[in-house]
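Researcher: Please translate sequence to structure tokens.
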Amino acid sequence: MTYLLGKHPYITLKVLFQKDKWKKVDCLIDTGFSGGLSLPREYQGHFRKQVFIETHLLLADGSEIAADATYTKIRFNGKEKEVDVLYLWGTQKHWLV
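Model: Translation complete:
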């Protein structure tokens, strides 16, 4: 389901967490959508123990940040898709899609 909260677009997704547990999460839709899911680093332990890779991201202001990355599955509108997951530092209030 997509909806507005104030002027910000959100979407409800089912995300596959550790041990095949699906959980509904509300995500802020990022207008620079790259096809993945960005989560605060504190959620990294909620996923299966996999090999995480370090990736480097170029931000709009020209700066570069490093982030751990892996993959998981999401469900939306009855469809399932594998997506990249980035774990970012900071205190993001919302998950980004």
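Researcher: Any highlights?
Model: Residues 2-96 form a domain with the Cathepsin D, subunit A; domain 1 fold (CATH 2.40.70.10).
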